[in-house]
Write a structure and sequence with these properties.
about 350 residues; alpha/beta; Rossmann fold; six-stranded mixed beta sheet; five-stranded parallel beta sheet
Length: about 350
């Protein structure tokens, strides 16, 4: 079996790449890593700190919890107060605050909120609690949405009448188009997400290059993955070329995962959606199709969509767009810490502020 870890942490190969990248003496390059896992890996391995001053890595909106709008959190908190409801969620949703209150607080007050590790767990929980309404909180990009779709498909197949899904699922391509076209951000290149790309394939990145003249490289998450992706971008800029490359071909295939995509669009259809900090992006969200609407928590509980402002002083919106760094926020490391997060970027383990705080300090 091939070793997909150690060979991509080879210290000699890493040193060669670092020395090569540090010799870059051209104009400033601003490279955005889109994926939250990339943000965490870049901080964990200290990659940002070994780059020359004229290569700047900035983080994009690739953390699904971070871009979940405040109205979704309001709805989840509202549902948690319903004694006939059991909330199911992944752990990182528990601590997102709204006016200082989170699902963690609601659980401490007695709400039935359960952390799950697979959306499919909700099928058994619904069968075991037929007198309760089970609400699965669904947040994520193309990586996690297919398993949510499969859960809904199985719920319909088994004729479950007490399972509902509160969705805030999004797709990456439309958000990247918004960022690529924003001259204020001024992205020179993207480091594209490995996980999402395993599902959607490579064609949309080629379109980004053609339509917006912004190159990029799909990369994995080990040091050599990331450094070789950066090196490929730098080398082509030096030679006056703008390219797209799949530097993670051991995992990402051109066509992606057709089975996962088909399941996702069997249950969901595109819709306009709000990205926290960015705003409404046309056709960037996923809503449950009419044929499966009996599982839509928004319909079942008549939930209202009311946009609210970010906490006063919080710069998560600007950080998610790559316009600000965490340490430029006056709350960072003071009022806003992993133990007491104010903004969503400090909550998730993939959030930019959480990554900076854990590995790069205050």
């Amino acid at each position: 079996m091939p070793n997909y870890i150690d060979e991509f942490r080879n210290s000699k190969a890493t040193k060669v790449l670092v020395e090569k990248i540090q010799k870059y003496d051209g104009s400033q390059l601003k490279i955005m890593e889109v994926c939250g896992t990339h943000t965490m890996a870049i901080s964990r391995f200290g990659i940002r700190n070994i780059l020359p001053d004229n290569i700047k890595l900035i983080s994009g909106p690739g953390c699904p919890v971070c871009v979940t709008p405040s109205y979704y959190i309001n709805s989840a908190l509202e549902l948690s107060e319903n004694k006939d409801v059991i909330i199911l969620t992944f752990g990182d949703m528990m601590r997102i605050p709204k006016d200082g209150i989170s699902l963690l607080h609601k659980k401490a007050e007695g709400a039935d909120i359960r952390i799950i590790y697979s959306p499919l767990d909700s099928i058994k929980i619904a069968k075991d609690n037929t007198k309760k309404n089970i609400v699965l909180l669904s947040v994520g990009f193309e990586t996690t949405t297919p398993i949510i779709a499969l859960t809904i498909d199985k719920a319909k197949e088994e004729n479950l009448k007490n399972l509902y899904v509160l969705t805030s699922n999004k797709t990456i391509p439309e958000a990247l188009k918004v960022i690529a076209s924003d001259k204020e951000i001024g992205i020179d290149a993207f480091l594209y997400p490995g996980h999402v790309s395993t599902i959607i394939g490579t064609s949309m990145y080629k379109d980004l290059l053609e339509d917006f003249d912004v190159p990029g490289v799909i990369a994995g998450f080990e040091p050599l993955d990331i450094l070789s992706g950066i090196d490929l971008i730098v080398e082509n800029f030096k030679n006056g070329r703008k390219i797209f490359a799949n530097n993670y071909s051991r995992v990402v295939k051109d066509d992606g995962n057709k089975i996962a995509i088909d399941m996702m669009y069997k249950i969901f259809e595109p819709c306009d959606d709000v990205w926290r900090g960015i705003g409404n992006i046309a056709m960037s969200g996923l809503t449950i199709r009419e044929g499966y609407s009996e599982f839509d928590a928004k319909i079942k509980f008549n939930l209202k969509i009311e946009l609210t402002d970010e906490p006063k002083g919080c710069l998560c919106g600007e950080i998610l767009k790559g316009k600000k760094l965490p340490n430029e926020c006056t709350l960072y490391g003071k009022k806003c810490t992993p133990q007491n997060p104010v903004g969503s970027c400090m909550v998730s383990s993939e959030g930019t502020c959480a990554a900076y705080y854990k590995y790069e300090g205050v």
